[in-house]
Amino acid sequence: DSGVTQTPKHLITATGQRVTLRCSPRSGDLSVYWYQQSLDQGLQFLIQYYNGEERAKGNILERFSAQQFPDLHSELNLSSLELGDSALYFCASSADRANQPQHFGDGTRLSIL
Amino acid sequence: EDQVTQSPEALRLQEGESSSLNCSYTVSGLRGLFWYRQDPGKGPEFLFTLYSAGEEKEKERLKATLTKKESFLHITAPKPEDSATYLCAVQFSGGGADGLTFGKGTHLIIQP
Lengths: 113, 112
Description:
- By secondary structure, chain A is an all-beta fold.
- Helices cover 0% and strands 53% of the residues of chain A.
- In chain A, a hairpin with a 2-residue loop joins strand 5 (42-50) and strand 6 (53-57).
- Chain B has strands at residues 3-7, 10-14, 19-26, 30-38, 45-50, 56-59, 62-66, 70-75, 84-92, 101-102, 106-111.
- In chain B, a hairpin with an 8-residue loop joins strand 9 (84-92) and strand 10 (101-102).
- Chain B is globular and about 45 Å long.
- Classes of the chains: A mainly beta, B mainly beta.
């Protein structure tokens, strides 16, 4: 058990809809990261938050946004969903020091019908 | 462009048959290289961090090494429970802050 909790485990919705994925980091970790894993692209970094502030953006679409709340949990919002957004979405967290390993949750599987 | 390439894509071994997985990278300023194991339906599980060329880390039947351009994950006398996808990721000094750049993984199967 990594200590990172993601909900829901599965999500099925339709094109054009909006969904919110939730992540609780490991106790004490200040950084939260979101990744997307698809069969053809592998794991892709989307965005990082550190202690409530956005720290870095990776390959995140404009239709996607995230935030980190004062209790350090994070939410990833996906809107105007397209078939190609079907993927596994992982959250990871790490301690505040640089170069520390990131610990991953078990992901949310998003299926767009 | 910063890239991470893993080989082979898939590897099938007999129980007890040792082998090595490769991760080569082209990044401008390596801050750290990470190995993860991923089982079906699960998130990546952290194995090792390597920071500088010449560094080695060991855990049970696994040993990770790092050179200036690649890393190897050596698996000694593997058991069926070592079957998984092994992912390599790098953290570099570029604009992605602490985000990891992952390879596509090596799918390892250990047959009894």
